[in-house]
């Protein structure tokens, strides 16, 4: 698997912060979300939101708990690629922040 692009790393960091991952001073993230819990830290280029639908499901579940006043994932469907879903999620998180 290839190394993520700078855009993917930035988007993955935004998602990790949105989910409340613990961030160390040296830029590592502890996966301390209820659905992605682990006892180790990952560097920003080890976050896999951009390439794993399993990782994105956690974000989709989190979106389902929030009151947006609109459907934040209306731009995706069952036939959308992981990349398309990731792009919509990152765009929505940027709107929130």
Helix content: 40-55%
Number of helices: 3
Radius of gyration using CA atoms only: 13 Å
Strand content: 5-15%
Integer count of domains: 1
Largest sheet data: 3 strands, antiparallel
Keywords:
97 residues, mainly alpha, 3 strands
Descriptive overview:
41% of the residues lie in helices and 6% in strands. It has one domain. The termini are far apart. The protein is globular. The chain is mostly helical and 97 residues long. The chain has three helices and three strands, in the order αβββαα. A hairpin with a 5-residue loop joins strand 1 (22-23) and strand 2. It has helices at 6-18, 53-64, 82-96, and strands spanning 22-23, 29-30, 41-42. It has a three-stranded antiparallel beta sheet with strand order 1-2-3, with no helix packed on it.
What's a concise summary of this model?
This protein is mainly alpha-helical and 97 residues long. The chain is 41% helix and 6% strand.
Write the layout of secondary structure elements.
Elements: H1 6-18, E1 22-23, E2 29-30, E3 41-42, H2 53-64, H3 82-96
Antiparallel strand pairs: 1-2, 2-3
């Amino acid at each position: 698997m290839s190394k993520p692009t700078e855009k993917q790393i930035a988007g993955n960091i935004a998602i990790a912060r949105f989910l409340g991952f613990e961030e160390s001073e040296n830029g590592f993230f502890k996966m301390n979300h209820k659905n992605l819990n682990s006892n180790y830290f990952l560097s920003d280029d080890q976050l896999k939101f951009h390439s794993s639908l399993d990782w994105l499901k956690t974000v989709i579940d989190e979106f389902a708990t929030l009151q947006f006043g609109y459907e934040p994932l209306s731009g995706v469907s069952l036939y959308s690629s992981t990349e398309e879903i990731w792009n919509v999620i990152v765009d929505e998180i940027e709107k929130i922040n």
